[in-house]
Design goal:
It is a single chain. The protein contains eleven helices and no strands. The chain is an all-alpha fold and about 260 residues long. It has one domain. Helix 1 packs parallel to helix 10 and helix 5 runs parallel beside helix 7. The longest helix is centred in the last third of the chain and has 36 residues. The termini are far apart.
């Protein structure tokens, strides 16, 4: 179990650095496969998401590829909404949470395709985006959506933020990836804090995932300028399709347990 969690952390950390996502879409189902309930899985995933985002963003900042002011402005709406998402996730039935998570995975598959289309028409060079010229309400809205998803599902929200930054803020894809990863640091910490207070986090499993994520994120941010995104997108979408089926199966199982409990009563 220790080795498998570390390995999953390395893989998701690499994807985090390359795609600008938190990796929770993979970590949550893997934790469920190891016998963890979906609420604890979403909360625990945030440990890995947070450490992965910190690791990748630290590397981007050191080499001058990250504007922290822009990332924080993007996260501003997400910090309070992450608290709301964590509060809501704590109150939803496990079956509903599982089905909603499967819906998010299906949405992710669509957004990966949208992102590729946007990348074709997006400039490839990295341009600075001064915070004073960026539409504040759009950044706040993008961050708010990401924050709600982060708290509710244990993801970073980057899968939503990257295409929305490209579409609404006209950011080049690589700049959007790095800005998104920086915003995830603030959003995921907020969601993790709330879940920690609620007692939902399994800290040992989360730390193992986080250790792997830290290593993977360093690798991912280094290969971002070189790796063909088409192949990464394809692999990630295939993984998501497999995970959708498993998550739905888990939701059906939770509904069966609930129905049997009601019958006994």
């Amino acid at each position: 179990m220790v080795f498998s969690l570390l390995l999953v952390g390395v893989i998701t950390g690499t994807l985090s650095g390359v795609l600008g996502i938190g990796g929770g879409l993979l970590m949550v189902p893997v934790l469920m496969l190891s016998g963890v309930g979906i609420l604890n899985a979403t909360a625990t995933s945030l440990v890995g998401v947070t450490l992965s985002a910190i690791s990748g963003s630290w590397r981007n900042w050191r080499v001058g590829d990250l504007n922290l002011t822009t990332s924080f402005a993007l996260a501003l709406g997400g910090i309070p909404l992450a608290q709301v998402g964590a509060w809501l996730g704590d109150r939803l039935p496990a079956a509903i949470l599982a089905f909603c998570f499967a819906g998010l995975q299906l949405l992710a598959i669509y957004l990966m395709g949208l992102r590729r289309k946007l990348a074709v028409r997006s400039p490839t060079q990295i341009q600075p985006v001064p915070i004073e010229t960026s539409p504040q309400f759009k950044m706040f809205g993008i961050g708010s959506v990401a924050g709600l998803l982060s708290g509710l599902f244990g993801v970073g929200g980057g899968l939503v933020m990257v295409p929305l930054q490209m579409l609404l803020l006209e950011m080049p894809i690589k700049l959007a990836v790095r800005t998104s990863l920086g915003a995830i640091v603030f959003i995921a910490i907020s969601a993790l804090a709330r879940h920690g207070i609620q007692g939902n986090v399994l800290w040992l499993q989360g730390t193992l995932l986080g250790m792997g994520c830290t290593i993977g994120a360093q690798f991912g941010t280094r290969v971002l300028p070189k790796i063909p995104e088409k192949q990464v997108n394809l692999l990630f979408r295939l993984l998501l399709i497999a995970m959708v089926g498993y998550t739905i199966w888990q939701g059906v199982g939770e509904m069966t347990i609930l129905r049997d409990t009601e019958t006994v009563r």
